[in-house]
Amino acid sequence: MVEVRRKKVDEEWKQQAEREKIKMAHDIEEPETAGNSQPNITHIISMLAAQVLVQLGDVENPMTRQRGIDIEAAKFHMDLLRILYEKTRGNLAEEEDKYFTQILIDLRNRFLARLNGMNRQ
User: Fold this and answer.
1) For the chain, domain boundaries
2) Torsion sign over Cα 47, 52, 53, 54
3) What gap in Å lies between CA 74 and CA 41, rounded to an integer?
4) In this structure, how many other beta carbons lie within 10 angstroms of the beta carbon of residue 33?
5) Average pLDDT, stretch 41-58?
6) Are 72 and 111 contacting, i.e. CB atoms less than 8 angstroms apart?
7) Distance between CA 96 and CA 23 in Å, rounded?
8) Phi, psi dihedral angles at 5 (to 5 degrees)
9) Which helix (H) or strand (E) holds 120?
10) What is the pTM of this model?
11) What is residue 96's predicted lDDT score, i.e. its pLDDT?
12) Mean pLDDT of the region 13-28
């Protein structure tokens, strides 16, 4: 009988890798988390933003190791980020608000650039 081994994935490492990809793609600084790995709002922002980058084809899909474009899914995740921003406005630390705003602006610019590129084809 063949034994099937399942990969054990270190979720914390995976989340950190996603945040690093986002920081590199956006060239912006994520607010300090005081040296702990407790979940916080920047983790949520980074995870959603990473989805947008994958769906725009700007970042390789970590599961398939390929790039692809899914404009509708990118728009959906950008809408989720916008809703999250609206619901948390006034409750974020200054650094978190700045980070969130920079992410939203960058993703919107990337989205519009992708749409313009697709319309030219």
Assistant:
1) 41-120
2) positive
3) 20
4) 13
5) 95
6) no
7) 14
8) -100, 135
9) helix 94-120
10) 0.70
11) 95
12) 59
